[in-house]
Specification:
Keywords: FAD, Flavoprotein. Pfam families: FAD-oxidase_C, FAD_binding_4. The strands form 4 sheets. This protein has a 7-stranded antiparallel sheet, sandwiched between helices. The chain contains 19 helices and 18 strands. A hairpin with a 4-residue loop joins strand 5 and strand 6. The chain is an alpha+beta fold and about 525 residues long. It folds into 3 domains: about 260 residues, Uridine Diphospho-n-acetylenolpyruvylglucosamine Reductase, domain 3; about 110 residues, Alpha-Beta Plaits; about 90 residues, GMP Synthetase, Chain A, domain 3 (2-Layer Sandwich).
Amino acid sequence: MRRWNGWGDESNSMDLPASAGEFLQNVIGKGVVLADASLASVIASVPKSRAPIHKLINTNEEIRVRHAKGQSLPDYLATRSGHFGLFPDGVCYPENNQDIKDILLLAKEYNLDLIPYGGGTSVAGHINIKQSERAVITVDMSHMNRLISLDTDSNIATFGAGTPGPMVEAQLRAKGYTLGHFPQSFELSTIGGWVASRSSGQQSLRYGRIEQMFAGGSFETFEGTLDLPTFPASSAGPDIREIILGSEGRFGIITEVKVRVTKLAEQEKFSVIFFPDWQMATKFCKAAAQNKISLSMLRVSNAVETQTQLKLAGHEKSISYLEKYLSLRNCKSQKCMLTFGITGSKQQTKATQTQIKPFIKQYQGISTGSMLGNRWAQNRFKFPYLRDALWQQGYVVDTLETATDWHNVDNLLNKVETSLKQGIENKNVHVFTHLSHVYGQGCSLYTTYVFSCEKDYKSTLACWKTLKHEASSTIINNGGTISHQHGVGKDHAPYLEVEKGILGIKLLENICQHFDPNKQLNPGTLLND
């Protein structure tokens, strides 16, 4: 059973080692444990539905609770406190394209707002409800979850938009293929949601971001069906696929997704290198990207993240031996851990290993083999469970991400981290960053921040609002994108104009007006209207 007030399946969890409590108190201070609300009490607070009675709409109170929030920190605090504020008036579970067409017609007839819902994993407020005089229906795509076809001549697979990551991979791997899209939210997020939010996976160096994978599909709008044919390339005007990518439910509902898939690789290996400092580690990443070395993944943690990961890993004796060895090799207090992946045929992986060795030596890297890399691969989708583990000790954790050109990486990273560390007077905020996607031009920066709860939920949320605003303002005013992989949603919409410009925002508003003149599709998302 999926958790109603946290991440993932109730049978899964992430335990912190015994030493974690002491470490957290040393860097942050004592945690403050807040009381959780019960599901029963939240269900009892759900107001009467305003939705019309219809076979497509389920108005059950618990189902409405489970579709009211995503996975942002404000959402987490809402579910833990029981103070949801607003709930959808009903939930629709379409089984096919015709059901989507019918719910759109119903929305027109009864003047309803519709919010498309994939895996409910948004950390930017995509699926949250804005105050509306209209009834709000969440359109849960989870029943449209199968591999519809696989063209093995062109390596194009067609999926229902509600297919979650594990089912995408399982259905493809049964036929010898992979999509290779592995975002942190892989366990729950869906292929339609990846397209709608321009998602990026952990192995995008090999497989590309979702925009490289998205070949076409079907899109239902108030004006009818928009079919996107698959072409290997086209110069026939602007690419309509780019309008659908990142549209976040504002223009219509994605029903079928056609993606470019790849045959399963013969080999895959993840390894860890330690560098003496951040400068050496990032120079290595830039050199690997600009020399087009065929890695599938590169992720480098700054010194604070490296220290935090080692402290929270447990296995104190093994970590102690590792640190002593690294210290003897001149990797001491500023050491940075880099995890990389090599994926491909035996010949390809051997050639890549040969290519990468001179760069490791040039930037004073120390290889530690594949043990740590394999451990990372085994636990790669467990990080979201850390939020519950920290919460039980009185701490909250959140993340934000951006991307920028290489010349601006250190400047932006330092300013973002400073904005979080100094965002709230007399409060310790533990901040660390990793570089998780690299390009020849630049890279993404993914920052995590942890702080103790305040005396109550309201004060804790106020802390987050201050930190989020300070960091977001710093990003857009210092050459970063407001989002590299999480999308815009409602949380980032106020900051989008700096990035897109007045003309760019006007263009997006005009597209919304074309597809949705009455603003019934996910209003308030993407655009700050």
